[in-house]
Design brief:
With 442 residues, the chain is an alpha/beta fold.
């Protein structure tokens, strides 16, 4: 028997190392949390009796039996669906909720009960008992991740064998960069179309209809418009393009600029320079100063554009800034500025950090530099954020555009990945669907 340890940042990376080095026949015989990640112990030609624990753990053994039963049940369920009616797999392929008969395959482990002996433990015992309890929870969470990976791989392999056309559409959507839940919902809409080209055209048409855009251009609607978002997304440049667009069309008399960015070096000077060029007044709001009072002299202006500071989510100044924008007397329409070059995790974190101020939509920037549009489109669709403007270059205001939904989808297809997604990437995506089976797209 060959035994080896593997170290990685998370369970999926560790599983990949095991598969690459020991193959799919390797058995996971141990996992534990370490500084900076996880440690997996895997073995080839594993015999259960050789490493059986001497002291039984009733709670852990019970959860292990449940996990093993779920793996066997899920595998049998997938095989039965492939043999009888592939269209029955609603959870992964049609976006419909699970029926009562299917709920047993959802890989969600309940939190194990606290050992009864802790209620009567002496004062010196709870710390050790709590550590043992936390270790057991970590082991169970690791088992759940392993189960999700296995279910994702089984589901993907079953789909390729029973519905190769559907699997090909999944791959094409992943090349665009769309999220798993959004891909699932789109494929449910074209499930009855058998001709591949027609199915793909209809799928892209449905995607275009899912993208929301404002009925009235924000500048035409007027009022207080604020650019919010993390640093580096292009807020100040986008504000400059919006201001120049308005001045060229209506003149400089009815527009004003406001800066809330007193943290970035040169930010206020940059806006002052823009104001001098456009002959537009610029107001600076210092930290602690009332935004409502700063805006009061500008209420006669038809459009007021606010540039905000890009702060970290943990910065207390960010909370104060967002509360100011969400104040009752402000009535600002806040647009989340998102750089399409950002990673999925960065985009998601930006939305959750800034949604508390109330978002009227989003502005997508740096389209000329991006290698994928699927991630940002998935975010806008899933959180029902209308796409107000697009920017695709440094020219002011020439590189600011109103969004056209079908053109945006066409652009997303044109910049898609050239390589096919790997089998492991597809299996991981299906594992994510098992992890969030109830997640729906707005």
């Amino acid at each position: 028997m060959q035994v080896k340890r593997f170290f990685a940042a998370d369970m999926r990376q560790a599983m990949k190392l095991v598969r690459d080095e020991l193959g799919a026949e390797a058995a996971i015989i141990g996992n534990r949390r370490i500084a900076g990640g996880v440690e997996l112990t895997a073995a080839l030609d594993y015999k259960l009796s050789a490493l059986a624990p001497r002291v039984p753990n009733i709670e852990l053994e019970d959860e292990l039996r449940k996990t093993q039963s779920r793996i066997v049940t899920a595998q049998a369920e997938l095989n039965n669906r492939g043999d009888s009616d592939p269209s029955v797999n609603r959870q992964l392929f049609s976006g419909l909720p699970l029926s009562a008969a299917d709920t047993h395959i959802e890989p969600t482990l309940e939190e194990p009960p606290r050992p009864f002996v802790q209620a009567h433990a002496t004062p010196a015992e709870p710390a050790g008992g709590q550590r043992a309890y936390e270790n057991m929870r970590f082991e169970l969470n690791g088992l759940r991740e392993l189960l999700e990976v296995q279910l994702g791989s089984l589901a993907w392999n079953q789909l390729q064998g029973s519905r190769p056309q559907q699997a090909n559409l999944w791959r094409r959507l992943q090349r665009i960069g769309l999220s798993g839940p959004l891909s699932r919902d789109l494929l449910a809409m074209v499930g009855e179309i058998e001709e591949p080209r027609q199915a793909w055209r209809m799928l892209l048409a449905h995607l275009a209809r899912m993208i929301a855009t404002p009925e009235i251009e924000p500048l035409e609607e007027g009022g207080v418009i604020a650019m919010v978002g993390p640093a580096g997304m292009g807020k100040t440049t986008t504000l400059a393009k919006l201001a120049a667009r308005y001045v060229l069309k209506y003149g400089a008399q009815n527009i004003a600029l406001v800066s809330m960015d007193s943290f970035r070096i040169g930010a206020q000077e940059q806006l002052k320079t823009l104001g001098r060029i456009l002959n537009v007044p610029v107001t600076h709001v210092d930290p602690g100063q009332s935004l409502a009072q700063a805006l009061e002299p500008l209420l006669r202006k038809r459009v007021v554009l606010i540039d905000t500071a890009g702060l970290q989510a943990s910065d207390p100044a960010l909370r104060m800034q967002l509360e100011s924008l969400a104040g009752r007397g402000i009535k600002a329409r806040n647009y989340l500025v998102l750089a399409t070059t950002s990673q999925k995790q960065v985009l998601t974190a930006a939305y959750h950090s800034y949604k508390r101020c109330g978002l009227s939509g989003c502005i997508l920037t740096k389209l000329d530099e991006t290698a994928s549009l699927g991630e940002v489109l998935s975010l806008a669709i899933s959180h029902e954020l209308p796409v107000a403007y697009l920017t695709d270059g440094p020219r002011i205001p020439d590189d600011l555009h109103l969004p056209r939904r079908h053109q945006l989808v066409t652009r997303a297809v044109n910049v898609q990945m050239q390589e096919e997604p790997s089998e492991e990437a597809m299996a991981d995506m299906f594992a994510d669907l098992y992890h969030n089976p109830s997640k729906r797209v707005g």
